[in-house]
Amino acid sequence: MPVSRAVLGFLGLLFTAGALLLMWLTFLGGVRNSNPLNQIYFLQVDTSNIPGAPALSRWTWWQLCAVENGDSQCGSSSPDYPFDPPSHRTFGTDVNIPAAFIGTNHYFLTSRFSFPFMIIALFFGVVSFFTGMLAICTRIGSYISALMAWLALVFQIITTSLITAVYVQGRNRFNENGQKARLGVKAFAFMWTAVACWMLACLMYCLGGSVSRSDRGYSGRKQRRRGFFSSARQPSIERKEAA
Question: Which InterPro entries match (predicted)?
Fold first, then answer.
């Protein structure tokens, strides 16, 4: 029994909503000192030997946060906060900073480019969510939602790849310098799960758009047309048989 367009559209909408929820949670991590946002971060590092730095530091898209009792304690937010430990935006010193961070813009540029790509992914994702409501009942809605979901997927992959690369490299540099560092499990789990959700949403929307009328069980118009012509031809057939 073929699956109806309504079911496929609903599944696409469900995966879209799931992806957007995970993306928004990661995007807003560190904005407020309340659960769950104070538990979402990209990298945690033991910075107790860096002058003026907190004992534990966490990087988010908005700021560098200190850690107290296992929770992030963040100050004023600044969008597109870079991952650049020696700069004046972060610690403002080279003391006990891994040498790999000094004299390079690699970490600064990679981390900053991820922010606008995330905003673009969220934009197309939100559009896909609203058009996904039309995908439940219309073919054009399915294809438009699939296109928007595909664009969101592309930019989500770019964003997730950038932050994964830069913070994995940063973690390794800090660990090599004797400063214990670990990635934020929630942030990266959310981002990569969102990638999977977008893939499934694209698939559901495309399958929904490919469903034909016959697959939905639609045959009323054809039957009415056949009934009209058969009734119109019936008298002439009867006269031929009588002759």
Answer: SUR7/Rim9-like_fungi
